Amino acid sequence: MIYLNDILNLPNPKNVKLRFNLSFGTNRPAIDYFTDQTQPSLNHMLSGQYWNYGIKGNFSVGDISLGFVPVPERPDCWLLFHVVEVTKDLNVRNGVGYQFQNLSHYDKYIGRIIIRFKNKSQNLVRKGDTTLPLCTIEEILPSVYNNDHFPGYTNVNVSWRSLSVLINKPSWRTALRNQKGVYLLIDSKTGKQYVGSAYGQDMLLGRWEQYIKTSHGGNKELKILKDTYIQDNFYFTILETFNQNIDDQIIITRESYWKDVLRTRIFGYNKN
């Protein structure tokens, strides 16, 4: 059995803190912020890593800070996304409380080390001297984690930027190409939604590829928005799927049903 510190060789575990980030304050999967690899997403992760709740601080100056996010569909498995030294306590509570400096010699492990650790405590920030001995190496990836495994139709919840990468992965292309469906776009900044349907060539794959190529997908109300706004703020999920033999009119009827249920003609981006 190989332990995390067998790889990192941190000299003083008492000066190490590990934060296990279940989420970053939204319904978006924590790991999605990492796979985006955009500056806004990375900044959001770091804000979560260094957010102080209540009156007690999580880190001290000189601490080595390790950040982890859960790996989807792998219970008790965590991806290492952050290794730095805390350099300043900003004395902020209920906000971002620290500054730090990068430790570049650990960069080669970022996004590649997956550990196994069962967090039995509600405390998400754990002390290194007691926690490192419980963290075993599950896998060291040959390249940075990119979450290219298709999670199932009922578990799709991805940003535009993540989808722009995932849509080229074989497992995603196969899954999306084989189902017609009704899908939902969510504007994470305003909460407005758009219901659409996919029943043409290549079904969900063909429809979603149009969003990646044009950002707006040809939707009238979305054309009003800047491409960069859609790319930074829109998320994709699937409401219903249908096999390729289902009559298209059934899908169109279900699309209208979801527009009524979610009131997207009134409060969202649907106008028809």
List the helices and strands and how they pair.
Blueprint: H1 4-8, E1 16-20, H2 30-36, H3 39-49, E2 51-52, E3 64-70, E4 77-89, E5 95-96, E6 98-102, E7 113-116, E8 125-127, H4 128-131, E9 136-140, E10 157-159, H5 160-166, H6 170-177, E11 180-187, E12 193-198, H7 203-214, H8 220-223, H9 227-233, E13 234-242, H10 248-262, H11 264-267
Parallel strand pairs: 1-3
Antiparallel strand pairs: 1-8, 2-5, 3-4, 4-6, 4-7, 7-9, 10-13, 11-12, 11-13
Helix pairs in contact: 2-3, 6-7
Main traits of this protein?
272 residues, 7-stranded mixed β-sheet, 31% helix, 4-stranded antiparallel β-sheet, alpha+beta, 11 helices
Structural commentary:
It is a single chain. The chain has two domains: 4-140, no CATH class; 153-267, GIY-YIG endonuclease. It starts with a helix and ends in a 5-residue tail after the last helix. Strand 3 and strand 4 form a beta hairpin. It is of the alpha+beta class. It is 31% helix and 26% strand. The protein has helices at residues 4-8, 30-36, 39-49, 128-131, 160-166, 170-177, 203-214, 220-223, 227-233, 248-262, 264-267, and strands at 16-20, 51-52, 64-70, 77-89, 95-96, 98-102, 113-116, 125-127, 136-140, 157-159, 180-187, 193-198, 234-242. The model has no long low-confidence stretch (mean pLDDT 93). Strands 1, 3, 4, 6, 7, 8 and 9 form a seven-stranded mixed β-sheet that branches.
Which percent range describes the beta-strand content? 25-35%
Report how far the terminal alpha carbons are from each other.
Answer: 59 Å
- For the secondary structure, the number of strands is 13
List low-pLDDT spans: none
Question: Which geometry do the CA atoms define?
Answer: elongated
Category by helix and strand content: alpha+beta
Helix content: 25-40%
Arithmetic mean of pLDDT: 93
Radius of gyration: 21 Å
How can the largest sheet be summarized? Answer: 7 strands, mixed
Reading the helices and strands in chain order gives HEHHEEEEEEEHEEHHEEHHHEHH
Number of helices: 11
Total of domains: 2
